[in-house]
Specification:
Blueprint lengths: L2 H11 L5 H33 L5 H21 L2 H26 L11
Length: 116
């Protein structure tokens, strides 16, 4: 292949994709994951300080978001590791969702050790 053919193939493979934009999106997603984790920790700590209760609502959203992200990665990359991580996050998400529903229905109180 000549240099021109290689360049043309590269252009056709990357058609409609801006490499810099893809890198910025990747960085933004990483920052979003870590900042949302930090915000969940902050909300949980403040909730404990002021109410002596542990609420799971923000953690449901966080683990749901991360679970979906890893399922998308698995669907695109077909890496078994991504599937196992997604399933782990799905289990945490499901457990928290069940806990939340049980709390809403009044079948259980707040997390043990927390004041009602």
């Amino acid at each position: 292949m000549t240099k021109e053919e290689i360049l043309e193939k590269s252009r056709s493979d990357n058609a409609g994709k801006d490499i810099e934009d893809l890198e910025v999106q990747k960085t933004a997603a990483t920052v979003a994951y870590f900042s949302s984790f930090g915000l969940c920790v902050l909300v949980s700590v403040l909730n404990w300080i002021f109410t002596r209760q542990i609420k799971v609502e923000c953690w449901i959203v966080f683990f749901g978001m991360v679970c979906v992200a890893f399922f998308v990665k698995f669907s695109r990359l077909k890496k078994l590791h991504e599937l196992f991580v997604a399933l782990g996050y799905l289990l945490i998400f499901a457990a928290l969702l069940v806990l939340f529903i049980l709390q809403l229905s009044g079948k259980i109180g707040t997390i043990p050790g927390a004041a009602s």
